[in-house]
Write a structure and sequence with these properties.
The protein has helices at about 45-60, 85-95, 110-115, 145-155, and strands spanning about 5, 15-20, 35-40, 65-70, 100, 125-130, 135-140. It has about 160 residues and is α/β, with parallel strands linked by helices. It has one domain (about 5-155): 3-Layer(aba) Sandwich (Glutaredoxin), CATH 3.40.30. A 7-stranded mixed sheet has the order 1-7-6-3-4-5-2. The longest helix has 17 residues, at about 45-60.
Length: about 160
């Protein structure tokens, strides 16, 4: 049975800083489809598939129709994946879309947003419709065609 779309929580509550953008809230993105790519810079699948896919989507769809946002959510190798290293990573890999840095874990396990959103790990791709509702979440590698079909569907819908 398909689940009904749910309102996305404001992930800015649990974000410690932003790269490539002033702080964003999902509320101010209403009216746009939003693609959130949850990644870690030392995650091989994130580096080889998810981040390049998000970059391609951002290049292909107008900014006023689709917001692409990264969420760097670190649950291992904390010392190596700090915000300074992330800035270098984004510059080296040409990540120019906004990237939120998930607030570190308070319980030693999952970062705040990853825990709040009940995510399984990285990479995770989340699509929100123009009304800010979570319409789809994928953990792992996502085929370009599948993502394209979903984006086309959401972009063609009215709010």
């Amino acid at each position: 049975m398909p689940r009904s779309p749910s309102q996305a929580p404001e992930f800015t509550w649990d974000v410690s800083e932003w790269l490539n953008s002033p702080p964003l809230s999902l509320g101010e993105l209403r009216g746009q489809v939003v693609l959130i790519e949850v990644f870690q810079m030392l995650c091989p699948t994130c580096v080889t598939h998810a981040i390049p896919q998000a970059k391609r989507v951002r290049q292909l769809v107008r900014d006023d129709q689709l917001a692409v946002i990264g969420l760097h959510s670190v649950f291992e190798h904390h010392e190596a994946m700090n915000p300074d290293a992330l800035k270098v990573f984004c510059a080296e890999f040409g990540v120019t879309f906004p990237v939120a840095v998930d607030r570190p874990s308070t319980d030693g396990v999952l970062p705040a947003t990853m825990k709040q959103w009940r995510l399984q790990g990285t990479p995770t791709t989340i699509l929100l419709d123009r009304a800010g509702r979570v319409r789809q979440t994928w953990f792992g590698t996502l085929d370009d065609l599948v993502l394209g079909v979903w984006l086309g569907t959401l972009l063609s819908e009215d709010t």
